[in-house]
Design a protein that fits this description.
- With 103 residues, the protein is an all-alpha fold.
- It has 2 domains: 55 residues; 34 residues.
- 83% of the residues lie in helices and 0% in strands.
Length: 103
């Protein structure tokens, strides 16, 4: 019996073994690859949690330093600061527009 072969002269049995080797290599590499991807995602999540905790501790320290202050006082102050920053930014943008009219 003559075994069948492809255009390059390789037997079908040889092709099947190469295909099987590719599957085995993929099975070995896939867990490592997934571990790297998910590990990177977890590291990013950990950095975000650390940042949130640092900001919460700063807010707690600000409240603790003020005498007779409550959490509501700090919240009101933060909202006011955000409004002031936004209005200052809007004023700066308006100033830039005025400079263009002087030409």
């Amino acid at each position: 019996m003559k075994s069948s072969s492809d255009a390059n002269g390789n037997s079908i049995r040889h092709q099947t073994s190469r295909r099987g080797a590719a599957v085995v290599e993929f099975a070995v590499i896939l867990p490592v690859f997934l571990m790297l991807i998910f590990g990177g995602m977890e590291m990013g999540r950990g950095v975000i949690v650390k940042h949130i905790l640092e900001e919460a501790s700063r807010a707690g320290c600000r409240v603790a330093v003020m005498e007779g202050a409550t959490k509501q006082d700090d919240t009101k102050k933060n909202k006011k600061d955000k409004k002031n920053k936004k209005s200052k930014k809007d004023d700066d943008d308006d100033d830039d527009d005025d400079d263009d009219d002087d030409d």
